[in-house]
Structure of Sigma-54-dependent Fis family transcriptional regulator:
Amino acid sequence: MKILIIDDHQPTLALLSAIIKKGGYEPVTASQGAEALDVIRGEDIGVVFTDLVMPGMDGLTFLQEAKGVDAELPVIMMTGQGSVETAVEAMRRGAEDYLSKPIKRDEVLVQIERALEKRKLLRENRELKGELADRYTFETIIGNSRKMQEVFKLIAKVADVDSTVLIRGENGTGKDLVAKAIHYNSKRKDGPFVKIDCTALPEGLLESELFGYKKGAFTGAHRDKPGRVENADGGTLFLDEISELDLPLQAKILRLIQEHRFERLGENQVRDVNIRIVASTNRDLEKEMEEGRFRRDLFYRLNVVPITLPPLREREGDIIIITKALLERTCQRYNRRLEGISQGAVEALERYPWPGNVRELENLIERMVVLTDGDKVNVTLENLPETILAAEDGFLGHAVAQGLSLDELEREYIKAVLARTSGHKAEAAQILGINRKTLLEKRKRYNLE
Ligand SMILES: Nc1ncnc2c1ncn2[C@@H]1O[C@H](COP(=O)(O)OP(=O)(O)O)[C@@H](O)[C@H]1O
Ligand SMILES: [Mg+2]
């Protein structure tokens, strides 16, 4: 490992070089700051010792320049006796340490070791974080549509503040992905991301899973166990499908949000926890509240920042982008070569309403790639499944896309026929195959008057 020494005083260079060589490192010397910067740019230097007062560039200026070349390069400032102030100033500007003259051998070697160790840790840490952050950058959420751009903006905005976030959207629209993106782009990213799927466990188990329990709290509780809430301390707790919690559990979550406090089951001790809560739902929470299944106060607490993911069919242009990206990824995974995708297939995919959203598209692509004979994948109309091809265009396609109920469909149709007949009821009744009285009743029921 090379150690760079900068000093205009030849005997100091010689002394330090000798110490460094004895310590098993390779000394490199420079008598001026400018020269030293060239060395840093050209060679892999582990630690730098620089004199403070030199002709030309002084030590503090060199420090600043050197940080511009390599922000993590440890620079140790050498100072004459009694210049503690300057040493402190150097540390404030990013020097790793300072070495006061006269130079002591042991001190030099300890400083080198410490600086190298710290640098190694920094590097490892950065690599680890880089890996994690890369996995959840916005790149993994594919989409160019205006609606998704809005979502990206919201994610960027809420990631930094510590507020509670409610992610809404149909199944398969990417709620999990967004929850992770929020966590890994927030200042909690080095803390844990803990997800709890509220649909996965029956209520009793869910509660102990969330809050943990004390030994003996119930049969089978053989030891104390922390819950997911505690596991998430310092990070983010993702409550997936929160509408599935029963009312008592909703009350406990409300307290957790308001007070950052909870108790393990069977224990009286109140525990504090530092978590951010992100929740998701695919349900109409307004309706759940009206029907008394979801607490209003919890809703308002959660809904501080709502992010609503549009269904895939409403993201203009995204179906094809996502299809191509997923095809490439899946072909790679299964060692197939992607030949192409025909225009007809593209149109069919765009016409289909995707009730299962991106998850459905992902499954379709995986199935197609796996079922392909040979190693080339070619997506054409012929190898798209029947369900995709059968998707109706026009009115029915629209109805399916909107997920209309039979009543809603009837209302839409009656409205359209009345418009067609310019409000002529007898004519409309005839087209609809019902009598005038029934038409009037339906018109009233559907508020079409
Ligand atoms: N915009 C997107 N780009 C790429 N993949 C996506 C996108 N949205 C969702 N996915 C993928 O689709 C699947 C379903 O997403 P998920 O986040 O689990 O949906 P949800 O939680 O809303 O049901 C996941 O495998 C996810 O990686
Ligand atoms: Mg989900």
About this structure: The first helix runs from residue 10 to 22. Residues 262 and 271 are 5 Å apart (CA to CA).
